[in-house]
Specification:
The protein contains twelve helices and nine strands. With 288 residues, the protein is α/β, with parallel strands linked by helices. The strands form two sheets. The chain has a seven-stranded parallel β-sheet with strand order 3-4-5-6-7-8-9, covered by helices on one side. Strands 1-2 form a two-stranded antiparallel sheet.
């Protein structure tokens, strides 16, 4: 990973905040087991996530078609930060999504994330009347738009591939695909016969993230949504792919963490975390 590019001031702040040495932070960055976000000028609070650091909490906010008010989202942002949220994500799908994101980013004092596939799908439906009209070019244009607006991390469902969806279908679920991004991409792939562009053009994706200094949150689009669906073929197949993509992100100098694992019985948690950490090379996990 391009860990040497992280400013010393940022590392020092995080080390003091976490009660660990700067060497610990640097070693975690080198290995990819720690992700660092924030800005040295203090406009975005420095934050470390990963091995040996305290668990962080994210708050999701965002408009919908029924509730498109930016003022409401600004209120939610204020409440979330006051309550101690370490990061905030904007999942907006209604109103002027670009204006909402840019305003929230400007007002948010902590690391800020988005899910670009939501906007790409919505724009395709608004413009051409169907999800199937979404093109890889639109997807990447929206990703770069979000990156240029200064978001710190993006959730990207790169592990939802034709092969992993096929693995899921070979072992039918009670709840199917419960991830919004995962379901959008699975439907798009089935309708068009094409591979997920986030996977097929992963190098292009990494180039955008690298250019703008954005961290990759590799989304678990096939996470189980019911206890009975836990640890099945779909979830496991996706996790294997995400582990491969973590390694590629590190080689490209892009920080990466991984979403997972979704719903599961209590007696599977320890084994699942051990397996996921192994498959994903010790990457930090964003637990849903």
């Amino acid at each position: 990973a391009d860990w040497q590019a992280i400013p010393d001031q940022l590392v020092a702040h995080i080390a003091q905040d976490e009660g660990v040495s700067e060497a610990h932070i640097r070693e975690g960055l080198r290995l990819g087991t720690i992700v660092v976000m924030g800005r040295p000028d203090g406009s975005v609070r420095p934050l470390g996530i990963g091995s040996g650091l305290r668990t962080k909490t994210n708050a999701n906010i965002g408009t919908s078609e029924d509730f498109p008010s930016l003022d409401d989202e600004l209120d939610k942002l204020q409440v979330a930060v006051a309550a101690g949220a370490d990061t905030v994500m904007d999942l907006s799908t209604g109103g002027d999504v670009n204006a909402v994101r840019r305003t929230l980013r400007r007002e948010c004092p902590v690391p800020f994330g988005t899910v670009p596939i939501y906007q790409a799908a919505a724009e395709a439906c608004d413009r051409d009347g169907s999800l199937e009209a979404m093109t890889p070019e639109l997807v990447f244009e929206v990703i770069e738009r979000h990156a240029a607006d200064g978001v710190d991390f993006q959730t990207l469902h790169c592990g939802v591939t034709r092969a992993t969806v096929s693995a899921l279908e070979s072992q039918p679920r009670i709840c199917g695909i419960v991830s919004r991004g995962g379901s959008l991409l699975a439907r798009w792939m089935k309708a068009t016969g094409q591979e997920n562009p986030l996977y097929e053009r992963f190098d292009d994706l990494l180039a955008i993230l690298k250019r703008y200094g954005v961290s990759a949150s590799l989304g678990d689009g096939l996470r189980p949504g019911a206890l009975a669906d836990a640890s099945d073929r779909g979830q496991t197949a996706e996790t294997v792919v995400l582990g491969e993509l973590v390694a590629r992100a590190r080689r490209a100098g892009v920080q990466a963490f991984v979403e997972g694992p979704g719903h599961m019985p209590l007696d599977q948690i320890a084994a699942t975390v051990t397996l996921q950490k192994c498959l994903c090379h010790g990457a930090p996990f964003y637990v849903l």
